[in-house]
Amino acid sequence: MVLYIDKENLISLVQSKNKGEFVEYSSLILKNLDIHYNFSKDEIPQNEHLSYWFKNLAEGVSSGKQEFCPPKNVIPEIPRKSNFYNSLPSSDRSSIFFFNDEGKATVAEAKCCVIVSKVGDEMSKLKELYSFEEKGEVLAYKIPNWSSYLPHLPLTDIIISDNHYFKDKYVYDTNDNELIRFLSSIPQQIPVNVVIIAKEGEIDPAIDLTKEQESIKSIVKAASGSTKSTVTIVTTYKNHDRALITNYYRVTHGSCFHLKENNLKHDVRTEVKTHGMRKNHSFTKELLAEYQDVIANPSKCIGDRVSNILVF
Q1: Residue 95 near residue 4, CB atoms below 8 Å
Q2: How far apart are CA 249 and CA 276, in angstroms?
């Protein structure tokens, strides 16, 4: 993951009132994120807070790339646009953007599609990204619904790999796509791309996948508020494990993602892994490579064939 940060935001972060939190979270981002500084190295000696960051923290702790402008370009480019996310490449759909334009940042933040912070809110955004990592594993039968459990982090894409998502019509109808319905409601007026990977041969004969693709798409459009939202259903014999991937985290789950009337065993485990941890993001990339292979050679592929993360 990449953190794009303006000079003013970095100064604000260093000036955090809670020094214990500052030390904790600065260490996390330096160890786990690549940092793209939207300013020149020449500006560092001119400010005591920048000097402190680079002399006392970044030089000894950083495990990722640290890039400056120049030679790199400022991102988001100036003049800033509140819809800068529309032109982001796939790789930056999981990046973090801290920039010094309160108006543009506030509008972009309200859309809830990428993590954005104006000056002064940096620590709260970092807490959102990292805090749920500390929760550890949860027994799935104790989760009342996905909305109360999953992070309410921004997203543009939802990828669900679940062998049994369409296996039982009664269970499927009872859950009424609760997981997708909740996640799609997080962005506001922004297209959400949903890809569901299910197991060929494990589809209830009473379920018509073509009709369900249309039905789920209507749900996603209504929840996201965007008529450009998409849904694709892929079937395969290749996948076995269950996983949910969005822009900023991955969920591992030991059973079908339906929680209601699913006869969940008491030892089914669920855990959220933030992409803000380098090892988690690396594993997610490996998993996505496997899904990409499925997408390239599916048993069936129904729907829009659109994703910011997978290539159809």
Answers
A1: yes
A2: 8
Q: Of the candidates 1, 31, 30, which has an alpha carbon nearest to the alpha carbon of residue 10? A: 30
240-266 pLDDT tens trace? 789 999 999 999 887 889 988 887 678
Q: How many CB atoms lie within 10 A of CB 19?
A: 8
Judge if pTM exceeds 0.90.
yes
Separation CA 29–CA 95 (nearest Å): 12
Assess contact for 231 and 304: CB atoms under 8 A: yes
| Strand partners of residue 161 | 197, 243
**Both tokens of residue 184?**
């799609």
Phi, psi of 2 (to 5 degrees): -115, 135
Question: Considering only CA atoms, which of 38, 184, 216 is closest in space to residue 112?
Answer: 184
Phi and psi angles of residue 146, each rounded to the nearest 5 degrees, phi first? -70, -30
C-alpha of 155 from chain center = 5
> Model confidence over 285-308: pLDDT tens digits?
999 999 999 999 999 999 999 999
What are the Cα distances from residue 294, in Å, to 59, 286, 312? 42, 13, 10
Token pair in block for residue 195: 């890809």
| 146 burial via Cβ count (<10 Å: 0-12, 13-18, 19+) | buried
